[in-house]
Amino acid sequence: MCRLYGFHASAPTRVECSLVHAQNALMVQSRRDAEGKDHLHGWGVATYTDHVPHVERQAWAAYHGEHFRNAAARIHSRTVLAHVRRATIGVPALNNTHPFAEGRWTLVHNGTLEGFDRIRQKMLAAMSFRHRAAIAGDTDSEHVFRLILTLHDEEPHRAIVETLRLGVRRVLDWCAEAAPGVQIGLNLILTDGDTVVGTRWGRTLHTLTREGISPCPICGAPHAHDQTERPYRSIEVASEPLTEEPWREVPERSIYTITPDVELAIEPL
Length: 269
Prior knowledge:
With about 270 residues, the chain is an alpha+beta fold. It has one domain: Aminohydrolase, N-terminal nucleophile (Ntn) domain (Glutamine Phosphoribosylpyrophosphate, subunit 1, domain 1). It has helices at about 15-20, 25-30, 65-75, 115-125, 130-135, 140-155, 160-180, and strands at about 1-15, 45-50, 50-60, 75-85, 100, 105-110, 185-190, 195-200, 205-210, 235-240, 250, 255-260, 265-269. The strands form two sheets. It has a seven-stranded antiparallel sheet with strand order 3-2-4-1-10-9-11. The protein has a six-stranded antiparallel sheet with strand order 5-6-7-8-12-13, covered by helices on one side. Strand 7 (about 185-190) and strand 8 (about 195-200) form a beta hairpin. The longest helix is centred in the middle third of the chain and has 19 residues, at about 160-180. The protein is globular.
């Protein structure tokens, strides 16, 4: 059980309010989410500059000290992933803290693969040696990440959303065989900084689209500068609505893409 956040925009943008200052900012959720649960076993943020991800992670609660606040205040990026962790599989440790990263790719996960101990060997056997050897922690999330990257390496020209679909369906089938009738949580966000793809399966998920640059309803200042090439557009994805704006619920058992042009497409998974 965790809480995740994804952001993609047509221009570099500050997301400090979404992460720290909003009514239900990610830092607020780290202390207490809508279900009354805390997420104090780690936090992480991935941002992109010139197509290169920068990942900052800590294995303590986002609301402890100033580290998460300071990290959020530095963000000025077109693409952002963020995560606060409530440990279910894997002890609280830096190697088990999201986002996971490899090359241009970063991933965050909300949920638990019930029966993971019974499907782990199948997952490892389906991975390339490189990705199997690169696993540093013991979470189900990192294993899913490495499985998806293996599938991407096998067919690098296949659309990444189809690779994600293939990997998720394989994991779902394995879980159904190992733990029949048990609900799993497999909300994922995966990005290379240009395209964002993700799933909703078994956990809550919402999205918000903004058109044009306007003052932030939280701090009163605009979070991006005017662009002459095209109108500004941004899309946020979060486990829970962060503000009082009209967030849209992502359908259960769905897969989605946010394109480089910041268009959102949602399909059944």
